[in-house]
Amino acid sequence: MAMPENVRGRPVIDTGRCPDGCRACADACPTDAILVDGGPGSARIDLGRCVFCRDCVEGCPEGAITYGRDHRMASRTREDLALSEGVKLAAALERKMLKLLGRSLKLRHVSAGDCSACTAELQALGNVVFDLARFGVQFVASPRHADGLVVTGPVTQNMRLALEKTWKAVASPRLVIAVGACAISGGPFRGLSAVHDGVESVVPVDLFVPGCPPHPLTLLDGLLRLLGRIEDSPR
Amino acid sequence: MKALRNGTSIEERALPVLPPEEFRRAVLRGAEGGRIVAFFGRPLGEGVRLYAVLADDAAGTLAALASDVGDRFLSLTPDCPQAHNFEREICEQHGVHMEGHPWLKPLRSHAAPYSFFQVEGEEIHEVAVGPVHAGLIDPGHFRLQCHGEKVLSLEIHLGYQHRGVEEALENGPDKRAALLAECAAGDTTIGHALAYALAVEALSGSIAPPRAQAIRAIALELERVANHVGDLGALGADIGFLPTAAWFGRLRGEFLNLLATLSGNRYGRGLIRPGGVLCDVPAQLADDATRRLSRARDELRQVAGLFFETSSVRSRIEGTGVLTRQECNALALLGPAARACGTPRDVRRDHPPPGASAPPIPVAIAMTGDVFARSHVRWMETQHSLEYLIEGFRALPAGAIRAACGPPAPGRLAVSLVEGWRGEIAHVALTGEDGRFARYKIKDPSFQNWTALTLAMRGTQISDFPLCNKSFNLSYAGHDL
Q1: Is the backbone of residue A191 left (phi > 0), alpha (psi -120 to 50) or beta?
Q2: Among B141, B158, B161, B272, the residue to mutate for chain A (most A Cβ within 10 A)
């Protein structure tokens, strides 16, 4: 399945077009998501920081950056979101966890400073179009009933304690899913004194879902990969 | 006092800086015939400069005034309840003690323990909810003081979403500024991005081309319709009337998807920037949008009919969570919450942005101030917006979508207002001598409207709380900033 027409999916850099020493895209990026740390053609996008704006596309004189229509972006490790050839898509949970959680995954949502767009897209997963429940994944009202947390937002100072307590209230083994650029890296709020620059600084994360906010298809794809329901090769 | 209009700026030197007592009288006078749009502080020298922006909705004008105070100010709130949250905020941000303020508690800060209002007596009990809620909702903490099922008092403690948006905008505009505006309240991306763009344009003396203005207005109405329709569905879910919840829920997606076709993002991220918009509307998209909107309109009529004409729905929402017009005016409530109390306040009609040419969208009002009125106003507004959208896509002016927008001029104050789907969004930008933001003040309508929920809940049943809360659907992020 591809993103609807015009929707900004995973960005792609054609590094063959990058002139020596050019940093125009990195300088234009408002969240420092573009890394140019090697020689010519080393530019890569950290999808954990990317907010999918247009500033790099407009800022690149060579037209080397484009948005594709690929909605698939979720990854199991933070590092896998910033690969030169794209992204290493999430692998399924290990067998033991899959056996425990794979057929009925109950999640508790914690909004830890999100602007409400990520929350709204999580809500949209429950509508008749995406209908997350048909895959056995449900949001529950208490961490005591949950197998894991879905966390949105950069984790504000004022939500830190609530997040820690909610996480501790989930019985082990438990999962944590970080949804959106803020939850992964702080997003546009990275470095501000009122926030913690993402969920990983507070609790360990098992799945990272990039986006600002992630499209419901991106969320669905990430969750189903985690549960081993989708296993095609990464692009 | 120098009159301003929406989307214009004045030199800060031209601003009347009154002695505190005179300033206080002037604000009270302005609030009586009009209302307070913004009231905030900024550290200056040894003390704090207070700024007030007042609106005269009938004349379509705004006024700004200032006063230099030390660490004390005689509170306006006892005489003017609409100053309530503004004064708590000034006290919290700048340490100005508001003498005589009846409720001078922290607004967002969690630095010190918060003392909740408590009711004592036999059979009195307290219900505490949040910050982590049972559903997919942003965090806030609610304390209900109850006698059996009856709610005597609801107190709302917020601040959990405080990210430091205003602080991050200081010394801007920089490359993050437009993103921060878009994220002030993520379900109001268009509203806040537009207010930001209008403020920067007012400071730099530029104006977006007619086509850009038309696309902005379309995006604003798409955002309104998506949210209103989504909320009508959520009300259906809270009542337990699930067919309408599912149906409205799907139709909400139609409008988000249309906004995504227009801008590349379901919430309109990356569409509006100072100077204009970044995405044009090709003729084919406009034709397609007209068709999609007409179809959605027909479906919405059916589902809204089912919702509003079902007697069990009506009996659940009529007379629930009533706000009086007096309460509405005392708090200067905004948006559908005000219009549902019979107060026809609407920035689109009263304070159109510079260069606006289209006739204003009719203002929808209801008189009963209950959950029914707030829902029905949303439905009427949805219909008005759909007519506007269908016509808007048909009659897009030709021309450029972006004009040059230079850097902000130094030493100026700009005010921009936008009628977001929850009500008036106000941005006030002040530039220093270097042309950078010396202060950037954002007011989301939620800032003023959260108090309305506490009033609406008094004397109701505790089981009405979700329904009342949903009928306002206020923003946590927009309040906490």
Answers
A1: left
A2: B161
